[in-house]
Amino acid sequence: xxxxxxxxxxxxRRLTAAILAAGASLIAxxxxxxxxxxxxxxxxxxxxxxxxxxxxxxxxxxxxGAAAPQMAEIPASAPASRATPSDLFANNEDVFQDPLxxxxxxxxxxxxxxxxxxxxxxxxxxxxxxxxxPSDEAITTGTIRAQPLEGLEMEELRRTLxxxxxxxxxxxxxxxxxxSPFAPVGLRLGTFDILPSLEQGVGxxxxxxxxxxxxxxxxxxxxLRLDARSDWGRHTASITGAGTYRRSxxxxxxxxxEGSVDGQLRLDLLNDFAALGRVGYDVRPESAFAPxxxxxxxxxxxxxxxxxxxxxxxxxxxxxxxxxADLTRTIYDDARLTDGTSVSQRERNSTLAAFTLRGxxxxxxxxxxxxxxxxxxxxxxxxxxxxxxxRSANRYALRGGVELDMGEKLSGEIAAGWLTERPDDGELxxxxxxxxxxxxxxxxxxxxxxxxxxxxxxxxxxxxxDTGSLLYSTNLSVSRDLRANLTxxxxxxxxxRRYPGSDQYDLTLRGEASLxxxxxxxxxxxxxxRHEQFRSNQPGRESRQTSVYMGLRAQR
Length: 556
Prior knowledge:
Elements: H1 2-40, H2 48-55, H3 58-61, H4 77-80, H5 85-88, H6 105-116, H7 152-157, E1 187-189, E2 192-205, E3 217-230, E4 236-251, E5 255-268, E6 273-285, E7 302-316, E8 319-332, E9 335-336, E10 342-343, E11 350-361, E12 367-380, E13 393-405, E14 410-423, E15 431-442, E16 448-460, E17 468-483, E18 486-498, E19 505-518, E20 523-536, E21 543-555
Antiparallel strand pairs: 1-2, 2-3, 2-21, 3-4, 4-5, 5-6, 6-7, 7-8, 8-11, 9-10, 11-12, 12-13, 13-14, 14-15, 15-16, 16-17, 17-18, 18-19, 19-20, 20-21
Helix pairs in contact: 1-2
């Protein structure tokens, strides 16, 4: 029994000694690592053998004496075979990285750094025994200082700049220059843009009545103009008008009213059809030398002309067909004589109805030649006049011409042909002759407009045996923007009247030059000089007139 108890106590002592030795070994391992890192300046790992020799007593480190208890010897190489933190990260790989996920920028940086160093892994940890002297190349710390990123790494981490820079305030942006700083602004009325203007001025004329023995006079002149144009997407409409009142201030008596208004509507229909409608009115004093004018009047009577047009055109490829109906009504006021009596001019009133058919073919985008025929009738208000003549007549005309279309550069048409009116009364000679018409606008350079207008008209007569006359009128004007606020206009005109069946003729020549100086967009000064001369191969039918004018124009 005593021997068994002694043996049991010995076993317990050896077990307790083994447990104490294992705990002391663990404590010594941690303390030795800290002391070694402090003494070596944080240089590499320390082997387990060195720790035991420095801290443990001989009986625990393997050098057991006689008094030391007997215990199993711990191999010196066992601690060295354990994996250390440096060994776990020797390949510079993230142990927590999911193999199915893409590598992060940090992982890529480690791999590129290892490649620059020449190997795929970090230098190995020195785990040799205490007798080995580790070299600087073979010893490494547990953590490695991160190197600065270069090249693609910086491009990947660089902040993306905005695609467009910050814009300044709208008030600070520069505005483009106005190409027409003195053009009218206009008014908006519904779907129409309206450009009104009012002009007031004074002038002087050398011949107030435009007769052979006319007297000079100073006068006041007021003019109102209106221009309205539609702003529609498909159809177009326009209205233009002007009215002038002229009254003498000193000298010969002047009291005249003249004006005109014209309205036009164009409708673009289906199947390349287009409809055109137009109405107009014109009033002005009759010339003292007009055929049928009454001599010895106190004031020249007014002549009223009302016009109406309706037309339909059809585009068929390069060809175009058009049919137009025209209606013209001419009315003369009664003439007031110097003795206070009045003379009716109802016998001169007439209505002209005409129908025109035109066919054209485009030989180029600019030129379209055409041929047109006209048939109509003139109805006199008095079927048989005071002389016993029936002056109503049939009208026929045939013309050929060309249409021009180059946009704003060149546009219009010119035509020539033959015109005749045959009165119902056989004793009256027909009025026949060359028919000339034209309306062309040409802009050779920017800011310059050249306009040519021409027309042929049949004028009636009231003298016994006199049928009437042919009147050819033409005007050539040039308008030029001399400066942004200075506009100049020059005009040359001529009227030639021929009396069929005789050698009698009348010729009127006129010239005009004007300047408009705009003070601002809404007001300008206007100056004008005009000269007109009337000639005839009949005695007592000559006159000259020169006039000057200065005024102020206001526009919107």
